[in-house]
Prior knowledge:
This protein has a single domain, classed as NAD(P)-binding Rossmann-like Domain (Rossmann fold). A hairpin with a 2-residue loop joins β7 (307-309) and β8. By secondary structure, the protein is an alpha/beta fold. It is 46% helix and 11% strand. The protein is globular. The chain has eleven helices and eight strands. Strands 3-2-1-4-5-6-7-8 form an eight-stranded mixed β-sheet, with helices on both faces. Bound molecules: NADP nicotinamide-adenine-dinucleotide phosphate (NAP) and 2-acetamido-2-deoxy-beta-D-glucopyranose (3 copies). NADP nicotinamide-adenine-dinucleotide phosphate is lined by residues 43-48, 69-71, 89-91, 94, 116-119, 144-147, 163, 190, 192, 253-254, 256-257, 259.
Amino acid sequence: MSPCFLLAVGVILLAAYIFRHVVVKGQMCTSSAQLHGKTAIVTGESRPSTAAGTNLSVSLVPPAGSNTGIGKMTAVDLAKRGARVILACRSRERGEAALQDVRRESGSSRVVFMQLDLASLKSVRSFAENFLKAESRLDLLINNAGVYMSGRTEDGLGLMFGVNHIGHFLLTNLLLDRLKQCGPSRVVNVSSMAHNFGKINFDCLNTHKALRFGTSFFEVLQGYSDSKLCNILFTHELAKRLQGTKVTCYSLHPGVINSDLGRNTSPVFQWVAMPLIAFFFKNTVQGAQSTLHCAVQEGLEPLSGRYFSNCTVKKLYPKAKDDAAAKKLWELSERLCGLA
Ligand SMILES: NC(=O)c1ccc[n+]([C@@H]2O[C@H](COP(=O)([O-])OP(=O)(O)OC[C@H]3O[C@@H](n4cnc5c(N)ncnc54)[C@H](OP(=O)(O)O)[C@@H]3O)[C@@H](O)[C@H]2O)c1
Ligand SMILES: *[C@@H]1O[C@H](CO)[C@@H](O)[C@H](O)[C@H]1NC(C)=O
Ligand SMILES: *[C@@H]1O[C@H](CO)[C@@H](O)[C@H](O)[C@H]1NC(C)=O
Ligand SMILES: *[C@@H]1O[C@H](CO)[C@@H](O)[C@H](O)[C@H]1NC(C)=O
């Protein structure tokens, strides 16, 4: 083999290594803030149980209960810093499994599970009631849960609008007084870069309680993007409403993450695509870094209401900081969840 060939291979490998460990991995949260005596809620850290039909013996994807999902990695990190962490998941069974994982991986026993289904306003209300009765503090609320599929919630709302936006809207509002009492406290909303493609169709919301219809690939993608735009507009409006209190709020894009996307795909897809996904996508520890940055980085308060990605504050397009749309959406959301 010629030295030139070896040199070329070496250069390519080095470039790939640097690409994976600098560009894809992204910035890590560097704060060493400790959270002893603080309480955090993280929504959505369970993993869907491995779907029927998936053959685990040929699956490259870790089975349910292992380190997948950025919510769980966020919870582990907060627990390691000493926080009391409430895991808010919709399924008791998967929530208990996540609880065992988080306790084991963090080495902390100050982690508890409380049932919360964001697709049910009744469940959100009873979660808030139980939480306020059982716990005396709330320092961090991490709105992480999200769905990407069509359907309707228990209350007849569009599923993505209902879970990604309205459920968290009601939850945040019901817990706001406790957050204010415990200030300085923070609310962190896991949004997505997909919000860039989002639009808010108020006519559709008013008549159908959904951002849009349709179950085609593009309709679902569009509905997801719309719901993630709602998260950002809300952070914008909430920051205004919280001025003068010690509660601050942030939204973020976590990166493109290898949660377990390939879970239900064919073995061929897994052998071909999964190595590429593992290379080009962040793992879940890396995917939790911007959330952690917004939750614990010291001195972030002046940036309340802003949007982060790669642990850095980012600019938003005008539609994502449109005061009138944010206010209108807030008022409509209050009506939809019976707060007004
Ligand atoms: N992965 C990415 O590349 C990416 C990119 C941009 C933004 N995000 C956002 O990051 C967040 C976390 O995503 P992820 O990648 O970690 O996905 P994930 O593993 O699918 O996590 C979503 C979590 O939300 C929970 N959830 C769904 N519906 C719920 C409901 N009705 N009530 C309560 N919890 C519910 C799920 O619980 P179950 O186990 O019960 O289903 C799951 O634990 C989401 O908001 C997502 O939109 C992800
Ligand atoms: C994230 O930030 C790091 C360090 O500033 C940079 O090297 C990397 O390219 C960024 N990644 C992305 C995807 O922007
Ligand atoms: C799963 O894969 C293994 C190994 O390829 C095979 O022996 C087994 O029959 C498969 N099981 C199912 C349910 O397909
Ligand atoms: C998070 O998003 C929800 C729903 O969009 C909203 O109700 C809540 O006020 C937001 N909070 C923050 C801090 O952005």
